[in-house]
Every structure is written in C-alpha cells, then in structure tokens.
Amino acid sequence: MAYDIGWIIPRLRSPGVLWNCASSITVAVVGLFSKIIVDFLNKTTVYNREALQRAVRRPRDVPLLTVSNHHSCFDDPGLWGVLDVGTLTRYSRMRWSLAAHDICFTNALHSAFFALGKCVPVVRGAGVYQTAMDFCVDRLCGGEWVHIFPEGRVNVDKQRIRFKWGVGRLVMDSAAAGRAPLVLPVWHEGMDRVLPNVEPYRLRFRNHLYLAVGEPLPLSPLLDKLRSANASEEETRRVITERIQEELMKLRDHTHALIRRTCPPAAERLLDPPAPAAGPSTPAPLHNGKERAPPDLTKDKEL
C-alpha cells in the first residue's frame, strides 16, 4: 500500500514556527552538503554563473522558474551547490522543487525530510491540475523560486523526450495572475557520474561536472501572441512548453560546444549517451526523419 502523502502540501501551506525552523536548517545543511560534493570533492565548471546569481537575487516580487535536464537523482540538490554560501543558507531565497511522490515520499521519514527540504510531491500521470502544481503556481505568484525537470523523469538514456506540459501551466497561470516568471534554463553534464543510475547508488568523487546557465527566456511576446489569438488553455500550455524545450535544447548544443572547445578530450565521453540496455524494446518509428511520439503523449494527461 502506497504511503499517504495527503498531509504534506497542507503542512507546506501552513507550516508553523517549529516546521519553519526545521525546514530552514534542512535547507541549509543540504545546500552546504551539496556544495562540498560538487565544489570540493568533485570539480565543477560553470558557464555564465552570473546569470544564475542575478536570478536568485532578483527583486522580491519577481517569480523565478528554473528548468533543466534530468540525468541523475542528485541533480537536485547537486545543481545548486554552485551557489554561494549566503544563498544556500537563506531559506527564503532557495528553490521549491517538484519531486516524484513514488521515489522521494515513500514513507514518513523520507516524506518529512524532503518536505522540510522544500520538495513538493508530484504524482506523475495525475495531470497538470493536481495539488502540487497548484501549490507551485501559488509560490510563483508570491515571487518565489520553483525548479522543475520538464522531462518528468531521470533521462537515463539522455535521449530527447517530449517535455511534460506542467511547465507550460506554471508559466501560463502565474502570468495570468499578473506575475509572469523569469524562466531560466540550465543544462548540466556529469552529474550521473557523481551519483550513477546503477547500483550501488552511492556518491562518487573526483569527477568533472559542467553546468551552463542560459539567459532568461523572453516569453512575454509569445504570451501576448497567444492571448491575442484567444488560444485555449491546452494550446497555450503546449506552445509554451515547446518553446521552453526548444530553448533548452539550444543551450544543450551550446554547452556541448563549450565542453569540446575548452575542456580535455576525455570530457567528451560525458556527451555520449550510454549504450541502450538489452531488451525487447524497439525505438520509436521515424516520420520524415523525426521520432514520432507515441499516441498517448499528445494528450495532456501527464506533467
């Protein structure tokens, strides 16, 4: 029987003094631990670090939505280990992060830890209008920072997969409330060597990580165009999501070019997708040279 997560979001909405104290400590400890892992026990190269610093220090009434690829279970909190200590230990500046309920919230202890760490349990397959998404829209409308992995899962094979439309809903609804978020793309390579996706699942050291921060995406013209065209909510979510995916893929190509140009030849091994696992599965059929999405992916049922 699955663990009941029904208490978590109500608690996050009305935390209380003791919860806030415990959460502040958890966020700071996890942030500092991540910094030790990525900055001291591994080597990290950050491209355009200033864009991330500017984003986290934005004016209080400006919401921030960061989006990134998902290669390892350590991506969050590992990514944020590149931030300065002052940010990592400041509860109000740190992100809220959507996390899979069936991985991070499987029992009382894990649920308490991740919830105290500002993680929000999302039920994959429950659609874009579930409670976790409502909560994140509210956080954005309050000028806070939300991080999402639009791929919706750890992309072990590092293949291009369609982004879930939940990211489009976050932008659409926060903009409709008058607070269009600052959308910042982040691409990283090497995190799956720090915490591999195969057993034994333990942190490893002396690896080289690469993190590239893009510039904020100019989505206001796109939102205005969709409003003037009276686009439906479904169409709006789809178009916004596709635009974000397009920009993140551009950042991916730019990151790979930077790694090849500025780093040792051995670093190129990070850019090669792992060999496919043996099994009966077959690749998706091609249509005009492009991968055709399975029929169920065209429906707005998943995040």
Task: Characterize the structure shown.
- Belongs to the taffazin family.
- InterPro entries: Plipid/glycerol_acylTrfase, Tafazzin.
- It is a peripheral membrane protein.
- It is found in: Mitochondrion inner membrane; Mitochondrion outer membrane.
- This protein has twelve helices and nine strands.
- It has 303 residues and is an alpha/beta fold.
- Strands 1-7-6-2-5-3-4 form a seven-stranded mixed beta sheet, with helices on both faces. A two-stranded antiparallel ribbon has the order 8-9.
- Helix 8 packs across helix 9 and helix 9 packs across helix 12.
Q: Beta-strand level of the residues, as a percent range?
A: 5-15%
Largest sheet: 7 strands, mixed
SS content category: alpha/beta
Distance between the termini: 23 Å
Order of helices and strands: HHEHEHHEHHEHEHEHEHHEE
User: Count the helices. How many?
Assistant: 12
Q: Helix proportion of residues, in percent?
A: 40-55%
Task: Report the strand count.
Answer: 9
Give the overall shape, derived from the CA principal axes: globular
Widest sheet: strand order?
1-7-6-2-5-3-4
Radius of gyration: 19 Å
Mean pLDDT across the residues is: 90
Low-pLDDT residue intervals, each spanning 5 or more residues? 275-302
Pfam family, one: Acyltransferase
Region (Disordered): 265-303
Family: Belongs to the taffazin family.
GO cellular component, one term: mitochondrial inner membrane
